[in-house]
Specification:
The complex is a heterodimer of chains A (320) and B (444).
Chain A (H helix, E strand, L loop, with lengths): L1 H21 L3 H35 L2 E2 L7 E2 L3 H6 L3 H31 L7 H9 L6 H11 L6 H10 L13 H7 L6 H12 L3 H10 L3 H29 L3 H7 L10 H10 L4 H29 L9
Antiparallel strand pairs in A: 1-2
Chain B lengths: L1 H19 L19 E8 L5 H14 L3 E8 L1 H13 L6 E2 L7 H8 L6 H6 L9 H5 L2 E2 L2 E2 L2 E6 L1 E6 H7 L15 H11 L7 E5 L3 H7 L7 H6 L11 H15 L7 H9 L9 E7 L2 H4 L7 E4 L9 E10 L6 H12 L4 H9 L6 H15 L3 H14 E3 L1 H4 L3 H16 L5 H13 L5
Helix pairs in contact in B: 9-11, 16-17, 19-20
The chains are: A mainly alpha (320), B alpha/beta (444).
Chain lengths: 320, 444
Amino acid sequence: MHTQQQAASENSSMMTGRKTKMKVHPERKKEERAFWIFASPWIIGFILFTGGPMVASLWLSFTNYDVVSSPRFTGLDNFISLFQDTLFFKSLSVTTYYVVLAVPFTIVLSLLLAVLLNQKIKGLFIFRTLFYAPSIVSGVSIAFLWSWLLNPDFGFVNNVLHEWFGLAGLGWFTDAKLVVPSMVLMQLTSLGGTMVIFLASLQSLPKDLYEAADIDGAGSFRKFFNITMPLISPVILFNTIMAIISSFQIFTQAYVITKGGPEWNSYFYVYYLFDTAFSQFRMGYASAQAWILFLLIFALTMLSLTLSKRYVHYEYTSRK
Amino acid sequence: MTQLRKMLLLTVTLILACSVILAGCGSSSETSTGKDSGKVEISWLVTSNPAKQPWYEQTVKDFEATHPNIKVKLMTFPYAQIDQKIQTMISGKNMADVWSANWSEAGFATFNQLGVLLDMTPYMEKEPDVVKGINPRLLDIYKVDGKTYGMPMLNYGTFLFYNKDLLDQAGVAYPTTDWEDTSWNWDRMVEYGLKLTDKGKQQYGLLYDETANKRAWLFGGDFFSEDAYKTGKMGEPQLLNNPKNAEAIQKNAELVLKHKISPNPSQTEAMTQLGNPFMTGKVAMMISGGWGFQNFKKAEFRWGAAALPNIEGRQIPLYVDPWNIYKHTKHPEEAWTFVKYLMDPKGAAKAYAENTGATPVFDELLTNWYADTAKAMDMKPEQVKQLNEGVVKYGRESDNHLIAKFDSILKTTNQTMSAVYNGTKSVEDGLKDIDKNLRSLNLE
């Protein structure tokens, strides 16, 4: 599809190029107008609610703005004080720690889940629904659910550990060393979205390669690692990048359950940003924080794309 | 490849963009000039609360009936959203004309520092009768540099609530309502707590869910300087300068770690998530704000209220909510007229006290309130009067209303305090950490 589409689009652009030189076909012109009309709600929305504010926040990041008085230009002051701010580095380091744990956790588990849900078994429909269901529940509810499951004194998990295995429970959210891993564990109920994308890609894989492998006598593992993995590698890349982005933006769990504690060990980057903006009224500083996060994620995305060239195969992605 | 990369980039940009900007998506309310027939419209911002809603609506209706040329637009928002709403309205320069600065996380000092509160002194000088019958101590709270920026409308003190059933079972006498009684001291309270704690039933002797600074207040300590409360700027933290701070925190940590009569922070939080822990009947004594008088009326057990333990130099938190006027209001005269109406002890203020059960500030309303509250607790009205007068005598306005951006200060403090109450950090190290972290807050 990809190559075909590309060819098609090149083709059509060549055609338009040629036609503009001569005379634009009235049908063509009509189509173009229709395109702009249909796309306009999105374009206007983007400019007004996304593009505009982004430009504004870039400007604000060089100012001192407390919401009431008008912004005062301060040059690079915000960025300079950010790099002297211990809490900034603390929040960046706990967030990075979370990303490093959460991304592999999410990708491996949701891929595993997708493979399981791709088997031909009875009641598959029910399993798929069940595993996807938590994804449609709001993040706050999920966070409350986990705060009760993992509560050190009254929580279900610690009760089970104690009653069945005689183990002393863990201080999931109260132990400085455990709080980030606990939040990674909470991702168990948020795998649905990633899992569905994997599942879709698994279902579109060509059968002939597997048949050939069967004839050659390859086992399941061999088939998975030598056929499935390379074939879905573009999807893995996509999911990894999306996971990196969403993990860097982790907020709700900490806001609802730990308030950033114990001792700042779950004070994630966006949480700090939220506090500077909405409880300290320092919009300029917060905008600077937002732009540093933007650049960081942008750089990481570009890095993943560059690195991916070596591991990602595109030949078969869309062959049915 | 390029296709996928483009798609990725686009998605990345979109998602980031959405997260970068949270502000600017508030409602844009109309400017407050009603154009028809020279009528003036003012807006009144309140937090949504089913218990108060009838009063809000009735007040607006009655006010408009008696003031035909002023229209009041009632704006209700849930408490959880109110800070962002106010922020958006202030930045859009269309803030409500009348609201209560303490009905938000930000609090009086934050708004005063932002310079959005109207100085009401000239109006008060013209009509001094508006505040007649209010204890001068309460009037002083919202005075900054001799100027009054808020009219007190209610006054919650801090009291020790107890479960009479549990105290009877344990065979201990009800604690006193007399704030001067020196026999009711900290050690005595701990003794009570020990008798009333029952681990087997998951019953705690004492629940004292209070911030570290206010725990220090009870022992005559203070994390901040006198100036901080006057200017609204935190300034130099005083944690290590006053030895009473360490003493207070030590004694409080012992409640959890040594005497084991109080739950630790995570237990407290888990209990609070299910509703007020006192209402479960598993807490024998609870130190809490005066809103307990209203909330505990629904309890399925008998309960009462007492003075806090008598400690030299103690300072007891008060929660006095003011009515405020937006400094840049287009109709200051009309806004003042409305505030005056809200303050009327024969009208709206009386209805408020009767509807919500909140402790009124006017002497003439207090008599009724004493009688009602005493009835709910099966105590004498004189005892409730003694409680309330004592709390005003030893009371001072809550720190979060007088020091700007206090929620950041509080969060910084709590980060370390939970480690102290869990026993993983010593009191001394804890205070040092908090001192250091507060200094690096750069609150301007």
